[in-house]
Prior knowledge:
Chain A has about 725 residues and is α/β, with parallel strands linked by helices. Chain A is built from 25 helices and 24 strands. Chain B is an alpha/beta fold and about 525 residues long.
Amino acid sequence: MAERSFAREVQDLKLGAGDVFRGEGILAITKALLENGVGYVSGYQGAPISHLMDVLADAEDILGEYGIRFESSASEATAAATLAASVMYPIRGAAVFKSPVGTNVASDALANLASGGVTGGALIIMGEDYGEGSSIMQERSHAFAMKSQIWLLDPRPNLPSLVKAVGDGFALSEASNTPVMLEVRIRACHVTGRFNTRDNKRPAMTVKDALENPRRDTNRIVLPPASYLHEREKVERRWPAAVDYITKHKLNELFSDRPSGIGIVLQGGMYNSVVRALDLLGLADIEGNSRVPLYVLNVTYPLIDEEVAAFARGKSALLVVEEGQPAYIEPAIHAILRKRDINTKVFGKDPLPLAGEYTTAVLLQGIRTFVSDHDRSLIRNDSRLPDMKPVMEHPTVKALATTVPPRPPGFCTGCPERPIFAALKLVERELGTHHVAADIGCHLFSINPPFNIGATTMGYGLGPASASAFNATASKRSISIMGDGGFWHNGLTSSVGNAVYNKNDSLIVVVDNHYSAATGGQDLLSSRVGNKSRATQHTIAKAVQGVGVDWVRQIDDTYDVAKLRDTIREALTSTEKGPKVIVASSECMLNKQRRERPLQQKAINGGKRVVKARFGVDEDICTGDHACIRLSGCPSLSVKHTDDPLKEDPVASIDNTCVGCGNCGEVAEAAALCPSFYRADVVHNPNSIDRLLARLRIAVIGWLAARRERRRIAFPA
Amino acid sequence: MNQEQDQRATDRPITVAVVAMGGQGGGVLTDWIASVGEANGFVTQVTSVPGVAQRTGATVYYLEMIHRRASGRAPVLALMPVPGDVDLVVASELMEAGRAILRGIVTPERTTLIVSSQRAYAVAEKEQPGDGTADSATVHDAAAVVAKRCIVADFAAIADANGSVISASLLGAVAASGVLPFARDAFEQAVRSGGVGVNASLKAFAAGFDEAERGTATKTTPDGKSLPHVPERVGIPALDVLLQRVREHYPPRAQRMIYAGLRHVVDFQDAAYGLEFLDRLAPIVASDLANNGTTRGLTLTNEVARQLARAMAYDDVIRVADLKTRSARGARVMREVGVDQSLQVLQTTEYFHPRMEEVCATLPARLGAAIERRPRLFKMLARMIAGGRRVRTDTIWGYVQLYAIASRKQKRRDTLRHGREMVHIDAWLTRVLATVPANYDLAVELAKSRRLIKGYSDTMSRGLSKYDRVLAGAELVAARADAADWVRRLRQAALLDESGIALGGALKTIATLNTAPVATEHAGAS
């Protein structure tokens, strides 16, 4: 089950002609797929496109009604390979994933798909995870489009434009027999807005129809001699067809009120930021009326040479707004103009910065420089923006820079991964530090304080693979970490199988939290709950045994820190050779709480006996060393200043967001920390035995305590 | 709706940034504000970059709204805040307000800043062995300077008191701020149409609204520590004797700290132990007075009193058992956990993990020492007692176990641990005393360094080792005029990290000092 229910969003998918959709960009795209007669959708979850996957996963009935197949793919490679259904059959298909990481994984399938070409529209929806909020390396997906010759859409970031791009993408794909990428940036995925919906459309051909009427054509298969043919076809037939379609249907947009000596060429996705920057310079208004002509590339690959040339003609200078590096559009425009001997100057990565997100503030600077260098008459002095320099250089603001602590993301309250790293940290105290290869997933938060564990991350499911070289007779073994998500994505073969085959004498810890947790809690093969449309409950331990790992330990309660510590120690010191795999399993706390809390509340309200646990700290016993925090970092375990004049350091303190996971007690025990922790179990709706026992206990304990307190000699508190 | 706002909304959007931590409900707040706008003829747009930040990291939600255009054309709204162009910034936590200011989105010309003043400490703050918490006053100061208007209150506490969440009380503050051209009931309507926990949300909304209307001034967090007043008498002869002695023989400017210490050690052991405390302190007081301490506010006496009390009331298992079996403790747990005894039953489990070292230390000195001298016996016994012990102190059996341990208090003075603690304390005091005549400030710093020893088991061993290293470092610089500064730096470094890496660095710096000529200006040690 996903972290949250998308039942309400699913209702939005049922809107028809005359209705208005309100919501996030990525959900608008989801709806647009249905309006455009998509026949199947495949994908792999991940920010910022997870919601598309989540909503479709909850929309079985609608999809069934239209004969649409939805696949929660094993990886982006699988998702991209699924598009093979559009090679021979006129079925529209979409593959969805985050990019460029997902595109990296998918590139084998994408390249093959692009070589043979498609009959049905094939759309690859890429959540471009770039800039603020991104969790991956900062690269561009653009290069993939160019190398495989896949067309690249980059629509303006508003809902009507995003929706239109889906339809354009399918049509362009079909017109040019070429797959099309739809690039949507993080903010565009999450931007809210509205659009007028149309009725959903049944696919012209369903996958069922295709299955029952198979077709083949060896000319579409990537093998010589067809592969040579494909390359020719790409430039001789598909490219011109695409240019033709893009031009004829005006996929790129020109915003130009009046002739001007300068102009801006921009990626569609940059449109709102560019307009706001112009607005702040007094060169545009809120409706987008700009005194500087704008040529908006809703298609950033291929460029339409004639459109570019026409825009440049008669202008002395162009600014190309192209986010990320390296620049591909800017040099291409240079080439287009030089071939035509058009002497318009072209600027881009100067005055704009070479790297980094093009925020409105960055664009404002760059455009200001560009305009004042090339058309001074346009720049007015009455900027709407105040000068921020006095504020930023004020001593009190400067003092903030060293005060405000960093707040990177971390393990949630009660996270079952926390005790795994606590145990690892304890083992490292005994056996010394080790080379720890990290992976992708929530567990990567271990690299931050307080755990500070993990040396590299090389890709999803590639944690143990990235420790491959460290296979030598040495006094220490390498440790690698991998989540259940990474394990099923790629890890079973690339990491575990590889370690078995190469006799890698190392420790692999598989963090199994029952879901693909970092991406929103989607189910996996090894999820413990049943799922009516997917096969779950396939254990990781059996899978690794299946590929030949002999030393496997399944730990079904990660909160048992002592057991984990001992098991890790055993793996690192055992005389047995080959990979040693520990599968550490406990359910993701976010999901567990979402599922159990309402049930628990209902039971309490219904008068049922319920025991709720949480932890606390005796503040007069805590000495304020915070050793417990260095083995936890839990948001609910914090510090507080006491009013005890003798205590200088703040003491540990647990707030009422504690979910009673048990880590505090276990760590206190395993690490022999202070005895200030206690667990409080509150029995709601106690039964008569509970009440009787409690009365008896309170009476006896109260008498004993009072007895001693009468004898105690003490000053008043 | 006021005229000026109306005008502004026509040619430029109203811009709002909500800065929050993932999971704090920043998205809910932003959606509420958006729906108020939507329902009142505005085009609104919300963007966010939740991604991985939703796992407790810092994040920003951004909202723009503008009157629906007469032209019918869709306005082009921006996807991120621009420094200098934000009307309202709402921070759901104090340091996040500081982060917003650092982003440059708060400006005196335009920005109303609503800050919820509670702290959620970042890991970097709370993991330090000492006090790593950031200085809240810095944010309050900056906010007062850079915002057009500041509304500061603990909106988390307000929400809590009304059984709701911070997004509701902050929405109240947003409504009260008047930055958005909508009446109060428009906001309340948005909460109602949300449909979840409406009543509690409306209560918190109203409380947040009122608090913001009151125009709460910038609050600086007071230290919170105050020394107790020395009572005339408490009616217990054994204690009144001690009080009299404090009043008659100790300088008034140190009496309150001395009394605080005295109270602590008596609570730890008994009245006689209180007398021991005063006896130990006496030579320090004399030395303080003899060395012009009055001009320094008797810092030495005050500091030694504080540290001596903590040192004499060392953390042993008897103390822990005593504290955990007091009736006041039971009541505090009830309060903290929020148990209503008429409706619920509370069960408490304590986590103990005695190590042989501690067990030995609690034995009578000769027996304990005898076991320590026999490694094989020690190891065998260690194996027997190894492992965690969980004690249910709400049960009679569990309680009685701890009660019995607490009763060992009468024999505490005979334990191996006690003897060792006293030897250590005396060595420390001797060192401090010997230093006073030559360098008063250094003596104070040496006294303060006793703070490094705290905790149980490994924590205490680590603290002891750090203390020893700091004192060894102090030896190296003792002859220098700025020795006190160096020792202070060493201590601060020792409190920065667990394993003493910063301290090691500081000590290395010190080692180079003696070879280099005495500099007037010196680099920070950490």
